[in-house]
Amino acid sequence: MPEIDFSAIRNSERRALAKAITLVESTNPRHRKEAAALLEQCLPHSGQSIRIGISGVPGVGKSTFIEAFGLFLIGLGKRVGVLAVDPSSPLHGGSILGDKTRMEKLSRKTDAFIRPSPAGRSLGGVANRTREVILVTESAGFDVILVETVGVGQSEYEVHSMTDLFLVLIQPGGGDELQGIKKGILEVADFIVINKADGDAERLANQSVVHYKNAMGYLNHQGFWTPEVLSVSSLEQRGIEALWDRISAYCEAGTEAIPERRTGQASQWFERLLSEGIANHLDENATWVDFYKAQKKHVTLGQISPTQAAISCIDWLKNNL
Ligand SMILES: Nc1nc2c(ncn2[C@@H]2O[C@H](COP(=O)(O)OP(=O)(O)O)[C@@H](O)[C@H]2O)c(=O)[nH]1
Ligand SMILES: [Mg+2]
Q1: Are 76 and 142 in a shared domain?
Q2: Centre of ligand 1 from the C-alpha of residue 217, in Å
Q3: Could you tell me if 125 and 248 lie in one domain?
Q4: Which of 53, 89, 115, 314 gets the highest tally of CB atoms within 10 A of its CB?
Q5: Is the domain of 181 the same as that of 101?
């Protein structure tokens, strides 16, 4: 792995930034320390952005929306980083790499940085480094970070747990069931945005706004913000400014709550890395693995209770570590 030139990252040099992200995303354990050292350098220069999670089923218009929204933000003088958390499966249209064509104008802007998700990256586990990629991208001076995800598996919850604001894009018409939207996602959404409010679908989109406003009213929201429902046309770039106004209101209302949310996220992330690190460390201990597997087998055969097996395992660890 080549040396990372931190000053080049600070200067927003794309190649340096891309290289730094590759290091952070590396699954090679030997790169971990180097990545950690880099993240330490990034930390004081990070955190100044708004981190926005964007979710929605394939075809809803995420890429088109990000292009329109990104260009709008650049017009305001902002610098926009686009990251993706995707279980890059061909079934779901894969990573945003292919979508770069839909973000053609945005990807040509010097004030935009688009990073597709690496192929085959697993979700959940240590392999998902998007949180760290956010820090690196922020330290390169990007002040709005858009994290895109397809609603597969746990990816939406993952993205929710690393962003300040969670936005769900929805097609005009059709209930959540038809769109394959999980109810839980609406519970964590800060903004529901009905996309494609143009042409023949505009009326339907307005009906959807009413429908989702009602539906959201039944959900039990916590926190400082009552979720809002808006409509946009990403294709015709309408409604984007109104949405941005509300996002700004969200940020203002969250002056205290957003930093608290970040603190909570950081401590949860630490807990997860620690548990995964401990589990990985134990996996490398062959004697432990044998002992643990034997206990598990006894449990599945009904020979000992799960409680007894857990006690035996903990005793083993106490005596052997
Ligand atoms: N009419 C209309 N079509 C849109 C709009 N946004 C996206 N689309 C179309 O919907 C399709 C899927 O868009 P895409 O951005 O690739 O969706 P993604 O899979 O969620 O990233 C494309 O054919 C887009 O042109 C919109 O605001 N209005
Ligand atoms: Mg897309």
Answers
A1: yes
A2: 28
A3: yes
A4: 53
A5: yes
Residue 216's pLDDT band, with cuts at 50, 70 and 90, is confident
Neighbouring C-alpha atoms within 13 Å toward the C-beta of 181: 23
**Average pLDDT estimate for 2-15:** 88
In terms of pLDDT, which residue wins out, 231 or 149? 231
- Select from 54, 64, 71 the residue to mutate for testing ligand 1; criterion: most ligand atoms less than 8 Å from CB: 64
Nearest to 208 by CA among 221, 222, 197, 199: 197
Question: What's this model's pTM, rounded to 2 decimal places?
Answer: 0.89
Does residue 199 share a domain with residue 58? yes
User: Ligand 1: which of 88, 92, 200, 235 to mutate, judged by most atoms within 8 Å of the beta carbon?
Assistant: 235
In the numeric block, which tokens belong to residue 35? 């990545």
Residues 146 and 287 in one domain: no
User: Does ligand 1 have an atom closer than 6 angstroms to the CB of 102?
Assistant: yes
Give the model's pLDDT for residue 184: 82
Among the candidates 227, 254, 281, a domain finishes at 254
Q: Which residues surround ligand 2, an ion (CB under 5 A)?
A: 62-63, 99
Within a domain: 316? yes
**Amino acid 232: pLDDT:** 98
Clarify whether residues 190 and 300 are in a common domain: no
Compute, in angstroms, the gap from residue 43 CA to the centroid of ligand 2. Answer: 30
Please provide the DSSP assignment of 239-251 as one string: SHHHHHHHHHHHH
What are the pLDDT digits (tens) for 74-85? Answer: 999 999 999 987
Instruction: Determine the structural domain holding residue 273 and report its residue range.
Output: 269-320
How many Å lie between the centroid of ligand 2 and the Cα of residue 93?
A: 7
pLDDT of residue 125: 44
Ligand 2 mean position, distance from CA 63 (Å): 4
Q: Whose CA is nearest to atom 28 of ligand 1?
A: 196
Q: How far is CA 17 from the centre of its chain?
A: 19
Regarding the beta carbon of 171 and ligand 1, being less than 6 Å apart is answered no
- Tell whether ligand 1 has an atom less than 6 A from the beta carbon of residue 137: no
The pLDDT-based confidence of 99 (bands split at 50, 70, 90) is low
Domain harbouring 130, CATH code: 3.40.50.300
Indicate whether 93 pLDDT > 90.
no
317: which residues sit within 8 A by CB, 6+ positions away? 288
